[in-house]
Request: fold
Amino acid sequence: VGGPQVRNMATVGGNLFAAHPYGDFTAALLALGARVVAVGQGARPLEDLLRDRGRAALIASIEVPRPRNPADFAFAKVSRIKPKGVSVLSIAVHLPREGGRIRGARVAFGAMGPTPLRAAAVERVLEGQALDAATIARAAQVASEGLDPPTDAIASAWYRREVAGVHLRRLLERMGGR
Reply:
């Protein structure tokens, strides 16, 4: 997650506060259900911090639950220049499965709003389903629902909405849903 410069110099905590279009790692942390611990405060969901980054305290640690099965997690960064280009968008997916059904779906997008955010419509489509072609198609259809992508020098909001479902479909197919 991130180009060579970011991997060598950036911090995990710094990703939480990086302005769009940077901070791709935050989408991955969001999909994994990470919790942040601020100095003098208890752990709280990363989503709470992202809702009000302006009032955040010094981050002491970040708790990241490890997926029981690594194959249940996937990440994709969509950029025009590889590997160092800034993101058109990024997608992180955590799909734990029980008996072949998705339980506790978490899907997060970067560059699809003012901060990385969860894709609630996609999560609703995936929850309780098998990761098959029909489910993936339905998830791709609602990929940008409820999201508010920016228009900037990298891509327009229209373009981001148009390609979000395409890249989500590709990511889910890579996870074994062909």
Observations:
- The first strand starts at residue 35 and ends at 38.
- Residues 4-63 form one domain.
- The two ends are 24 Å apart (CA to CA).
